[in-house]
Amino acid sequence: MSSDIIKVKNLTKKYDGLIAVDSISFKVKEGEIFSLVGPNGAGKTTTVEILECLKKPTSGNAKVLGHDVKKEDDKIKKEIGVMPQDFNTFERLTAKENIKLMGDLYGSDNVKEIMQKVGVDEFKDKKFEDLSGGMKTKVGIGMTLISNADLLFLDEPTTGLDPHARRETWNLIKDLKKMGKTVFLTTHYMEEVEYLSDRAGILIDGSIEVIDSIENLIDEHGGGIKVRVLEDGKALNIINDRADEVLKGEEGTWTGIFDSKKEAREALIKLFQLDSKVEVEEAGMDEVFIRLTGGKIDEGGELV
Amino acid sequence: MKRAFSLFISLTKNWLRSKTGVFFSILFPIMLLLIFSTVFGGQQAAEYTLHVQNDDLVEGEETQLSSVFIDALGSSESLNVVEVDNLTEHREERAFGSFRALRIEEGFNETAINKSIELRTKVIRDTMERANGDFTLFSIEEKVENITDELDDQNVSKELRKRYEEEGYELSSDENISIIVLQEGDSWNLYDEEKGYDHEIREENGTLNVYWNFEEETSPSAEITLMLNEDDQAAPIIRGNVLGIIDSFNSQMLGLEEDDTVINITEETRDERGLQPVDYYLPGFIAAFIMSNGVIGVTSNISEFKRNGTLKRLTATPLKKRDWILANVGQQTVLAFALTAIMILVAILVFGAQAYPGPYAIGLIFLGAVAFCSVGIVLGGLIKDVEAASGAGNAIAFPMMFLSGAFIHVETFPDYLQTVARILPLYYFHQGLREIMILQNPSDAFLAYLVLGIFALFFIVLAIKTTRWKDI
Question: φ, ψ for residue B265 (rounded to 5)?
Answer without folding.
Answer: -100, 125
